[in-house]
Each structure stands twice: as structure tokens, then as C-alpha cells.
TrEMBL record:
Highest taxon in the source lineage: Bacteria
One GO MF term: iron-sulfur cluster binding
Residue intervals of the 4Fe-4S ferredoxin-type domain: 217-249
Keyword flag Metal-binding: yes
Keyword annotations: Iron, Iron-sulfur, Metal-binding
Keyword Iron-sulfur: yes
InterPro entries membership: 4Fe4S_Fe-S-bd, 4Fe4S_Fe_S_CS
Protein's name in the database: 4Fe-4S ferredoxin-type domain-containing protein
Length: 249
């Protein structure tokens, strides 16, 4: 594997993003502007499933010989979307949603035209269960660029280009503010290897081995149902849920 690894001062991160020209639609979690590490807004889901989205347009006038097609597909945006600083679980959610939208050209045009810069987690929260579903806080799959904290240096970040698209982005777009690392492969492996994540103690195994019908019929579902407004926000907030319909308005 080719390695393209750079360092950047944390204080210059927003400056680097502001250097990007009008050809980029930059989306970052709010906490990156302050340098804090924490949960961001649901920007990945709103990117995958914009509300609303124009699927087609049509003409009311009768078609001419040169224009026989009343339906028109919307023109593609002339910008590249940069999803910067998303967590490994969010990056994986794009892949999981793609399994259901395999033949959706609108979905894949957005995904294939985007650059995903993931930010590896330093800790595992008590509510996390990524390790139980085949992922983890250091899962680098489904990213174009991996961003991680530098061990022993809180003021710096490490940027590692994985895909060809990611390596080109680092070298051509952010190059002036980046410091190329020597011994890149060793630095990445050392940074990942020194991370000690606590064992996932969630009770999914217990859940799967229990009587699922008893859970299905549990009384607390009635309590939740009574307060439900059928707004659908729970569907949209879940990173991997794709239970949507399309309304032609």
C-alpha cells in the first residue's frame, strides 16, 4: 500500500479548510472549529439524503423535433463535497446505506463525487457498540483520508491518504499547510498500535441470546408509542436507517 502521510498544526486546521476554493462544498462537525473532540451534527445523513431533492423536471409545452423528451434530469452540482472529520461509524454508515441503494444513481453520484476525511476515535463511549457489529473506533475503511491525533502532541494532527482521491486531495489542495512525514508507514502503525481501547461491554450478546419476542412485547413500547408523533425524525437520525419514501409534490 502507498502511504501519503502529513502533519498539520491543529490550530491551522480551519485555515486549511478555508483555503479550499469555490469548487468545494465543505461540511465539518461544529466541534472541529474549537478543536474539541465530540459529537457532531448529523451531516452524513443529510448529505446522503437531502431534503428536499429534485429528481426530475418537465416541460409543459409540447415537445419539438429537437426536444422530444419532456422529462429532464437535474444538472449535477459543479462542486466536490468534502465530509471532513466524520467518525468511523459514520463513514461505515455510507457503505451500509449503499447496500440498499445499489441502483440509485442519485445516491451514488453524491457518494462517488465526495471526499471523505475520517477522524479516528481516541476513546470508546459507554453507548458505543461499533466493535460488536464488525467495526471499531480505529476502522479506516470507507474513508479517503484518515485523520488522527498524534500521540504525545496535542497540538498536531496526522493526515493519512488512503485512496488515490484522498492522496491527490492532500497533496494538491492542502499541501501548503501540511508537513510531509518521513517514515510514514511506521508512524501510522505506531500511532494506531499505541491506542488502547476498553473492551466493549455492551449487552448485545445477551440480547441476541434472550427471548426476542419477550422484548418485542415488552410494556415500554406502549409508553413510547403513546408519545410518538409519527414525525419520522428517529428514522432520519439513525445513521444506518434507510426507511424512506418519496413523495412527488
Amino acid at each position: 500500500m502507498r502511504y501519503s502521510v502529513y502533519r498539520i498544526e491543529r490550530a491551522r486546521l480551519i485555515e486549511a479548510l478555508n483555503m479550499l476554493g469555490p469548487g468545494f462544498d465543505v461540511r465539518v462537525p461544529p466541534h472541529l472549529e474549537t478543536g474539541e473532540s465530540g459529537p457532531g451534527e448529523n451531516m452524513v445523513k443529510t448529505f446522503m439524503f437531502p431534503q428536499p431533492e429534485v429528481l426530475f423536471t418537465f416541460k409543459k409545452a409540447p415537445p419539438t423535433a429537437e426536444d422530444v423528451d419532456l422529462l429532464r434530469e437535474p444538472s449535477l452540482p459543479h462542486t466536490t463535497t468534502l465530509l471532513f472529520g466524520i467518525r468511523p461509524c459514520d463513514a461505515r454508515s455510507i457503505h451500509l446505506n449503499g447496500l440498499a441503494y445499489e441502483e440509485d444513481t442519485y445516491f451514488w453520484r453524491r457518494i462517488e463525487g465526495a471526499i471523505i476525511v475520517g477522524y479516528l476515535c481516541k476513546t470508546v463511549l459507554s453507548t458505543c457498540f461499533c466493535q460488536r457489529v464488525g467495526s471499531g473506533p480505529d476502522d479506516t475503511r470507507y474513508m479517503d483520508v484518515v485523520m488522527m491525533d498524534v500521540e504525545g502532541d496535542h497540538d498536531a494532527l496526522l493526515l493519512h491518504g488512503i485512496t488515490e482521491k484522498g492522496m491527490i486531495f492532500l497533496s494538491q489542495e492542502l499541501g501548503p499547510l501540511l508537513i510531509k512525514c518521513g517514515g510514514a508507514k511506521e508512524e501510522i502503525e505506531q500511532g494506531l498500535g499505541s491506542r488502547q481501547y476498553p473492551k466493549d461491554t455492551n449487552t448485545l450478546d445477551t440480547l441476541f441470546s434472550s427471548d426476542l419476542m419477550a422484548l418485542y412485547n415488552a410494556p415500554f413500547w406502549d409508553q413510547l408509542k403513546d408519545g410518538c408523533l409519527n414525525c419520522g425524525i428517529c428514522t432520519f437520525r439513525c445513521p444506518t436507517c434507510y426507511c424512506f419514501d418519496i413523495q412527488d409534490e
